[in-house]
Amino acid sequence: MEGKSRVLIIGVTGNLGHHLAQAALQFSHPTFALVRPSTFSDPHKSHKLHSLSSAGVTLLQVSLSLSLSLSLNFSLKNGGTIFKKNGSLEDEESLMTAVKQVDVVICAVSAKQVLRQKFLIQVIKQAGCIKRFIPSEFGLDPDKTRISGMDHNFYEQKAEIRRFVETNGIPYTYISCNFYMSYLLPQLVQPGLKVPPRDKVTIFGDGNTKGVFVKESDVAAFTIRALDDPRTLNKVVYLRPPGNVYSMNELVEIWESKIGKKLDKVFVSEEELLERVEACCIAETPYPDNMEMVFIYSAFIKGDQTYFDIESSGGVDGTKLYPQQNFITISQYLDTLLFGVRH
Asked: Where would I find the NmrA-like domain in this sequence (predicted)?
């Protein structure tokens, strides 16, 4: 594994984080995962961690709040042995211990925790050994979205982290993968449904604006390929795989061809969709349920995933950089929904 960066993944029990760890192992990177000891009390998460540990991931157990004020106990699992340092340690010390063991840090925490990355970034700067940081973005480019004031600071906070990374001089790669396939696509972009429609479908706007869906495991594979690539240093890596960029009209056509039936189409104008977004705000619909309409508006009305050219934006196209990387297409994914089976 000479020449392969040592990778620390934060958020490894999440869906994407788990795929990132698996991909890092697949590409022969020495892989570390930062986890809370309390995580082992959750049977599902504990199973994931034991599975990753058995596969070769080194688990660094830290009572981590990513907060400057909380103290913690630190334990390190290395080579099957648990070393514990009892007593009160500051987060900075335990994080520093973890960060200094690796070359690359990938953060895959939830959107609710995105601003907590600031403390991690400060530790990375102080450590001075990290040659690449990949923050928790993995969605639309927050610098390209055009829905200011509608998203409850969802993208503003991610952009704030970008500026914090850049101001602190941290070498970075941002991954802009747009939508995960597990979000909106399982119900064919039909809010309120759990499976694709068989009779009637709602199309937002004129149905011609294109969105992008990428399977989480493919996002992870592209991310791991990018982390040692000099072409992606201090760049945004955009993922728009061929076969994964479709308008709502095209999505419906693909689904109709699979079920052998035409659907009744109901068109919802931009104005009507904005009214629905406003209604969610008035009703104080809880996060993340209040974001569904906002994301649909951003992608399929404003075209925030596809309105700009990648190269002229200063970014790089991940699918062009790594043409050898296989990926699941939208059509292949929809095949798994024909009988209500999702993978």
From this structure: 4-334
Strands (E), 79-136: 81-90, 104-107, 132-134
Does 249 fall in a domain? no
Strands 210-214 and 245-247: antiparallel
**Side chain identity at 66, as an amino acid letter?**
L
Angle between helical axes of 117-127 and 154-167 (0-180°, round to 10): 10
Higher pLDDT, 289 or 268: 268
Query: What is the domain count for the chain?
Result: 1
Are 228 and 306 contacting, i.e. CB atoms less than 8 angstroms apart?
no
pLDDT digits (tens, 9 = 90+) for 231-261: 999 999 999 999 999 999 999 999 999 999 9
What confidence score (pLDDT) does residue 89 get?
Answer: 31
Mean pLDDT over 58-80 rounds to 46
Residue 120 lies in a domain: yes
Q: Considering the domain boundaries, does residue 283 fall inside one? A: no
Residue 317 sits at φ, ψ, to 5 deg, of -90, 110
The vertex-215 CA angle with 103 and 227, nearest 5°, equals 15
Q: Give Cα 49 distance to the centre of its chain.
A: 19
pLDDT band at 288 (very low <50, low <70, confident <90, very high): low
Q: Say which CATH number the domain at 104 has.
A: 3.40.50.720
Is the Cβ–Cβ distance between 45 and 13 less than 8 Å? Answer: yes
For residues 321 and 226, the answer to whether their CB atoms sit within 8 Å is: yes
Task: With beta carbons less than 8 A apart as the criterion, state whether 1 and 29 touch.
Answer: yes
**DSSP symbol at 189:** S
Give the domain range for residue 95. 7-180+213-242+308-325
Beta strands in 151-220 (DSSP E): 173-176, 179-180, 200-204, 210-214
Q: pLDDT band at residue 42, thresholds of 50, 70 and 90?
A: confident
Band of residue 2 on the pLDDT scale cut at 50, 70, 90: low
CA distance 158 to 170: 16
pLDDT band at 125 (very low <50, low <70, confident <90, very high): very high
Instruction: List the catalytic residues.
Output: 158
Phi, psi of 306 (to 5 degrees): -135, 0
Average pLDDT score over residue span 284-303: 84
